[in-house]
Specification:
Elements lengths: L7 H13 L1 H16 L4 H24 L3 H26 L1 H4 L12 H33 L3 H37 L3 H28 L1 H5 L6 H34 L2 H26 L4 H11 L2 H12 L10
Length: about 325
């Protein structure tokens, strides 16, 4: 990934520690999916809030007091996520009767009838996530080769867009369940109103975030990095970030539709178009061929982020989604 040599040790310490804690992350997501599928989004929020507060406290302790640097930051994340997983499992066990699972060993056997639609829907979604994340890693490798200032500015920008990611993915997760329930009941008007609500909420949130970044770029960047050279790049990054944020909003509504109706193949195709074709293609076009440097990579990624939203808008307007058969 062409990580600058100055950052290699920190990157290794953080990545190795974080990957060691992936099992609790998977476990928490599993429990949250069960609860959200039953219409309970309150308790997953409580569990992740506990994790977030604990993460902040441990970050201040490990990094600020014990000076454990990136290893301490990663360790704080792993511990907080493990606590969240344990608390969620205890809650699920105490309320096992409400969702019909007795936690006996024989009950953990795979149900083939249930597995088929899960794999049919889940595998393409997994591949689509890999395609998008993989394309981002590839582009970041080119950005990292431009030097530590370009890499640092992009890293700060990614932290800012992560705020939009958290918000829009939360709306998408809620939308997945609501769209699926109403699509299964053939209440198409409710599907449409749900998608419109998600789109409007995410657009307002992302536009406000983009406007704040456009007005106060250096102040926002300085929260994460106070290097003068990085702060200079914040003004140029803000312009491309707004384009990217529009894609976050439309993508949330689009994926809510595709995942909710179980159209995994179109979701997969749109993600390949976003990640492999558009993101890599546009980034290399602007960054390498047109010699725009770091701004070319930012512009390419921002344009690619809107591809999925455009595809989903055309599919929704076609009305063909109403004719799809149920997975189960």
């Amino acid at each position: 990934m062409n990580i600058p040599r100055e950052a290699m040790k920190y990157a290794h310490d953080y990545a190795f520690t974080y990957f060691c804690g992936m099992i609790p992350v998977f476990g928490y997501n599993m429990v949250s999916s069960i609860l959200r599928g039953m219409g309970d989004s309150k308790h997953p929020f409580v569990f992740i809030a506990i994790s977030a507060v604990l993460n902040i406290v441990l970050d201040l302790l490990f990094v600020g007091v014990f000076h454990m640097e990136c290893f301490g930051a990663a360790l704080a994340t792993v511990i907080s996520q493990t606590v969240s997983f344990v608390v969620s499992i205890i809650f699920l066990y105490k309320h096992r009767d409400s969702f019909g699972f007795d936690f006996r060993r024989k009950s953990f056997r795979i149900d083939r009838q249930a597995l088929k639609p899960i794999v049919r829907l889940g595998l393409p979604i997994s591949i689509q996530s890999i395609a998008i994340s993989g394309s981002m890693l590839y582009i970041n490798s080119h950005i990292n080769s431009l030097g530590i200032i370009a890499a640092a500015a992009t890293a700060v920008g990614n932290k800012i867009t992560l705020i939009a990611t958290i918000c829009t993915q939360a709306m998408q997760a809620a939308g997945n369940s609501i769209v699926a329930q109403n699509f299964g009941a053939r209440k198409f008007d409710r599907v449409s109103s749900t998608l419109l609500s998600i789109l409007c909420f995410c657009l307002v949130f992302c536009l406000l975030l983009g406007i704040l970044l456009l007005i106060f770029p250096e102040q926002i960047f300085s929260v994460f990095d106070r290097d003068p050279e990085v702060l200079k790049l914040s003004h140029r990054y803000a312009i491309y970030c707004i384009i990217n944020l529009l894609g976050f909003a439309t993508r949330a509504a689009g994926f809510s539709l595709l995942n909710g109706i179980g159209y995994a193949s179109l979701s997969f195709g749109a993600s390949i178009l976003d990640g492999i074709v558009a993101r890599i293609g546009f980034s290399l076009l602007f960054g390498e061929v047109m010699h725009m440097g770091i701004e070319g990579y930012w512009l390419g990624g921002a344009i690619a982020g809107n591809v999925i939203g455009v595809v989903c808008v055309f599919y929704y307007l076609s009305g063909r989604w109403k004719k799809r058969q149920l997975l189960v």
